[in-house]
Amino acid sequence: IAHIDCMNVVGIVGENFTFPVKIDQKIMEPVWKKNKDIVAEWEEQNKPTYFDPLRNRSVLMENGSLTIFNLEKDDAGTYILQYMDSLNDHYLDFELDVFDSLPEPNINCSTSNDELVLNCTARFQGSLSYAWKLSNKPHSYQNQELSIPLKHVGTTTKATCIIKFSQTERSSEVSLIQCLP
Q1: Which candidate, 36, 66, 88, 121, has a CA 20 to 30 Å from the CA of 155?
Q2: H or E segment and range at residue 96
Q3: 106-178 maps to which CATH number?
């Protein structure tokens, strides 16, 4: 029986995490194991059954995907989805890593060459995506740093930095006028 290569996945403490299961055909009897122990299974004609440590905090869908609510550090480990299609048994292996919750990002501002330069930082073990939103502009900027010409800095303009990892976002806001020297 062939095991597909193990897929590494990462969630964050406190979020609802769904394993990225992509199966095209109709499947039967999905069973999820964590480190060899069954944690969720769906036998013919029955409702899904859940076992500790996922009892009362997970949901198994008909397509085999499993969501864990309120992810904990202890949820990290090796998960295997076993299922049948019309012909064979199949296995999907996942290695789940659980990172600490996202911090609030820090915003630093400085001025150089008639520009206000905003920098967004956050201490985190995974690679974050960054975005800036200005209160007077509809679109956002996908960058860790944002430069604004000083002549465009309005007295009421606010800038928000949004960091994102997996399914979780955090943001911080600053009034641009506070940044000016």
Answers
A1: 121
A2: strand 89-99
A3: 2.60.40.10
